[in-house]
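Minimal example, chain plus pyridoxal-5'-phosphate.
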Amino acid sequence: MAQLNSSFAQLEGTYIFTLIEERLQALEQSVPRDKILNFGIGDVALPLSSFVAEGIVRAVQEMTTVEGIHGYGPSDGYPFLKSAIREAEFSSLGIKEEEIFISDGANSDVVNILDLFSEDTSIAIMSPSYPVYVKACTLKGMRNVDLLPCLEEHGFSPQIPEKKYDLIYLCSPNNPTGVALTHRELANWVDYAKKHESILLVDAAYASFIRSKEVPASIYSIEGAKECAIECRSFSKSAGFTALRCAYAVIPQNLMIRQGEKRVSLASFWKSRQNIKSNGVSYPIQRGAEASLQKLGQREVREQVDSYLQLAAKLKGALQTCGFTCYGGVDSPYLWVKTPLGVSSWEFFESLLKKCYLLSIPGCGFGKEGEGFVRFSCFSTREKIDLALNSLQSLRGNHVICSC
Ligand code: PLP
C-alpha cells in the first residue's frame, strides 16, 4: 500500500475555524446561533458589482456563438487581463505584461511558489500572519523555517533579522493585525534582500485597502525591488471574488535564483510550473476581473472597499470607547484588539461571544505571537455594525467583559 506524505503528521494544530465551531457548539445553550454577529471570517459581505457581473455574463454569452468559442486558455492568463492589470495597477512602475501570471487565488500562489525552491531553502515567516504560509512549508517538507515575531512594541512590523534567509514571506497589509509596511520598512527589506540575495514574497492580497500615504500600493515603487520581490495580489478582497477565484503573481524577469552555479530568472520556471500543474482560470472569470479594472468597475469595487474601511473605523471607535486597545482598520478590513490584562485570546473570544454575541477570531489562531489579541473582520454591512455598536454600548463604563 502507498505511504501517505509523512509531512501531514507534522502539521500542528487544528484549523482555527474548526476549533471555533467546536466552541460554538459547546456554548449553544448560552449563545443562540441566530443572535451571533459574525465578525470572524474574512469573506465578502456585499453583492458582486453589477458591472463585473455583466462582464462575466457577456463572456459566457459570447461562448454560445461560433465566433466566441473558447477552449483552454493560456495557463498563466489571457493577455487582455494582464494588460488591464498592468495599466490599472503598475503603469508607472515599469512592470511588463509577461511578468504578470494569472491564477485562481493568492492562496494558491503563496503555497505553490514553494515548488520553485529546494527543501533546504531558509525561510522566514511573519507571526502572527496568514496561517497558510507555515502549513504550506510544513507540507512541502521545508526543513529550515523560522518565524519573525510581529510584536506590539514594534507596531506589529517584523524586525530585519541578523540571520540570512533565502525566502521571506511578508504579508502587507497583514492578516490578522491589519498593519501595513511603510515605504521605509519595505525599503529596509529590499536592502536586506539585495545584501543577502534573498527573495521577498509579498502577499498583498489586501493592497486595495491601502490608504496611508506612507504605505506604498506596491513594493515595486521601491528601487531595486524588481530584482528581489514577488508580489501576490488577488481579486478576492478587492472586487469580491472569493467565490469566483482570480488572482495574480508578479515575478519580474530580473529576479534571479541559483541553479547550481548559474543564476537563472525565476519567472520562466514559474511559467513552466503553471503549465504543468494548471490549466488556468476560466475565460468568463478573467473577463469579470478585467471589468473590475475598467473605469465603471473600478468605481463600484472601490466603493465597496471604502465601505468596509468605514465600518472598520466605526467599530474601532466603539471598541476604543469601551476601553479596548485596538489596531488596524486603516489600511485593512481587520481590527486587532488587545485582550484585557491577564485574559487569553480564547477567554476574550468567549467573553465577547457570551456577553455581546460578537464572534471574533482568537489571535493565537494566527501564530503564537497572536496570543493576547482577537481579530475582527469588517467585511460586513452597516446594519450588522450598528447591531454590534448597540451591543458594545451596553458595556460602556461596565468592565464585566474584562472579568472573564
Ligand atoms: N492572502 C491573505 C493574506 C489572505 O488573508 C487570504 C484570504 O483570506 C488569501 C491570501 C487568499 O486569497 P485568495 O482568495 O486570492 O486565494
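The pocket of pyridoxal-5'-phosphate is lined by residues 42, 105-107, 130, 171, 175, 203, 205, 234, 236, 242, 247 (CB under 6 Å). The first strand starts at residue 37 and ends at 38.
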